[in-house]
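Today's session is about reading a structure prediction critically. Students often jump straight to the picture, but the first step is always the sequence itself: look for stretches that repeat, for charged clusters, for runs of hydrophobic residues. Only then move on to the predicted structure, which in these notes is written as discrete structure tokens rather than atom positions. Here is the chain we will use throughout the hour.
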Amino acid sequence: MAAEIKIGGTNYNIFCPENEVKDLQKIGANLNQKFHQIADEIKNYDEKTILVYLALTLEIEVQKLTQEIKKSPEIENDLYDAVSENIENISEIIAALTKKIAHY
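Below is the predicted structure for this chain, in token form.
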């Protein structure tokens, strides 16, 4: 099954299990929103460059969240594991998008 995701002016078909399609579409919509926020801030750049900025911005957010979680002693281990797993999933999506960007 494929989740169709639009980021910027490009549609992407991301192959995934059927039960993940809606989540990926939601994530894609969030990425598209962030894409347009960045595009508004750094006008006159091509889509590929904006996607690179997007990937870098998301990776910075992941690193900040990871550091905050590690510094927070009151977070339970199971919560830490759940958040870490989501951060890893986001990192995998960023890596997949970065590979697609490199092909353009």
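Discussion point for the tutorial: The beta strands are 2-7, 10-15.
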